[in-house]
């Protein structure tokens, strides 16, 4: 027994040593790290010297910078072991060291719907000079320069402020750039090669380098923000109309940082650094970290880059993410980022299902089916055509490998969506491969987002319609159906609705800033697309590849706000990013086209954690009356309250800023933001008081009166409740006290509106009561 115990002990020790050895070896495998050094001006040779101080002499080949940040910020990325990265993080002047994260892509009637016929409406055409010098930097998957959305007819010469380049590649020439697409950059893919299984050598894949878009995402977002006016744009007959960007006269600079697999955080940070140096006015980023793996602000490439962009007067607009409808999923939530949620517009895509008994159902989806009412096809449930030994639950969801292809061929199959890990695209590919005639999907969650099934007959219904279809199948021995080609329906009501996929607040990083900020169209958006022809069944018979496509995502909502911001910037050239942001936030609407409060896809009233302060209204934002200027000092105080050291804050801001004497996270609510959020307010505790300062950008002599909409059980007081502007006085401050008398537990929402008889300055607040 004793020998057995000794042997067991030896085994445990041996296993432990093996694990430790394995972990030690893993720690010593070089990985791509970002070394962020704030705003300090440090040369490339100094960065190399710093790198060589932690890398052993025998591995000097690794003393090489992958990316060097030297314009708006300082730092670099390189191959480091975990131990080397840890050593560097303790060096003077280093703010943070973190593994290069992989970020996700957050993937034209919309401008008509926003009632901002920019450049087309008589009331606004005077504002849109064809010589607009606003430059928008789109950081994405590149661009398709031949798209008609990027023609430069009628656009003036390239602004003198532009300092960027048009990089060439095997399939991209300098002549592809013009007065609309004034610049294009791409970044080499980083590859690691190993000859002996241990020593990793860094190489750069330059042979395929090009700014050309091979995904379509960057082309789509670019044209939404600043595409030229294109008449008779259509997606194979759907969504026909005039396509245009929010600011058709603005210039585009494309920065290709991403592929279909994702985006390197280090590369994205390099692109932001380049864009600021190149002279862009606004940066649009429809990309973000996964909501499950959000980083601290000092380790988030977008947050870092956007912070330095703000210091240079460059606005950064970002998508909120596509991880809704769960709360705490919003990303890109730093206060210096303009964070955008997604909504639908007043257009929908209906695909009619006709059953053998004559009943019809209007499902949602995009398909170019050649099926007709005159011929019906056998209709079956997924579990009825299950493969041998496949669980019925998997066959119901049309899992790969769960269906008997012989039983599926020639039939229309009903699938459900009990398991969200199996996407609609996978289900469609399974049935298409099995030679099914079509698919009816019963899915309550994604009913508001049309799926593009191309030529494959497809329609999606809710549980209510799905129940009736299932009842019909059970009522007859030979159920049949057909699925008709999609037709688009305009003037759809209600709109806007918060998209089911749109990520929700509050932010996991801090609940004392209300995120997302605003909402904009992001469902079923027609915009420029790369002409894809390589996917079987993607093009209707007899048609050429479309130059336009329909996509959904907060990726599409983000450039709507970018275009609106460029439009406002073209009129108010001296306005700072925070002034433009404030104008779009305080003039946003919370009402739909039924003149009722905006709802979500579950038909419930939408909260500010879903839609921010509301849907943007670019025309109203031109004349907001008052704006909240969030200064650099506000952001530095935010960093203090959040818990950053004085040393790091000074490094990031390049000045001798001192944090206030008393710092706590609760004080974040007090920075001069266009909305208010309070993480905790106890019942019958001392009132929470926040201060705001507004700047008058309207008539010199104005008087504003405060109107408060308070939730039940909460006492809100504004002091003073009258703001008078006259003579040279442009700024006024006021305080808002929040007292929890007997409000229901959880988040309560309300608003403070300043009225002068003409302007309507709306501030939303969110208060979490305990």
UniProtKB/TrEMBL annotation:
Domain Subtilisin-like protease fibronectin type-III: 670-767
Residues the record marks as active site: 140, 217, 555
Domain of life (superkingdom): Eukaryota
Assigned GO CC terms: apoplast
Family: Belongs to the peptidase S8 family.
Pfam families noted in UniProt: fn3_6, Inhibitor_I9, Peptidase_S8
Protein name: CO(2)-response secreted protease-like
